[in-house]
Amino acid sequence: MLSIDILRQFIPLCWLKNNPLELTRSTAFFKQNLLFFYIVEYFMQANMTDDPFESFLEVSIETSLTLLFIGFILYLNKTLYAFVQTTTAVLFCTNIVSLFIIPILVWLTLNEYLLSYYILGLLFIWELALVAYIFRKTLTINLSASIALAAVYFIIVYMGSFSIGQMLI
Question: Structure pTM?
Answer without folding.
Answer: 0.94
